[in-house]
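Section 5.1 Outputs to date
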Amino acid sequence: SHITTSTMACSHHDEPDPAKFGRPGEDAAARTERYQKMTGAVRTLLECLGENPDRPGLLDTPARVAKALEFMTTGYAQECKDVIHGAVFPEEHDDMVIVKDIEFYSMCEHHMVPFFGKVHIGYLPNGSVLGLSKFARIVEVFARRLQVQERLTKQIAEQIMETLVPSGCAVIVEAKHMCMHMRGVQKTQTSTTTSTMLGAFRRDPRTREEFLTLLGRP
């Protein structure tokens, strides 16, 4: 059967709140058009599921979903150089630096359901260091996009190499994927670990071993 979608019932949401929906440099007309497309798409999905998008419990759902997706994909509107904001400092320290247990939340690009976990980063400075909070900022830029864990891991490592030009960088990501827990095989105890080793971490087994030891891994 053919489904016709109406947006009249939620016309009071046709104009998005710029504080909750919008990207840098986006004018009001483009923001409103994108918002209306997203809310209309959510209404269509609700109808296809057999729901009534005009019942009280769902009346505001299209607007809520649009705003939630806008927040969960803010990485598309960010550049690492902007969030780093010059926080690279000259420092004659060449021993390993590790920032671990950086929490992240992302969305699987295959099913658009969450995967989440922790990121562990190690690097060997080569004349400069990065402000510690900026490692979490870099993680957020890449995590808040539609992602796969393998690519997320590599993007974080490559960005650190580009920003600091260190002697080496290592990134380990541990995550649980709702696409495995909630659907499909439905295995709720599974987790996935990915790693990217660059520079000295790839070349020198002793450097890798030190990194893994400091993370508490055998």
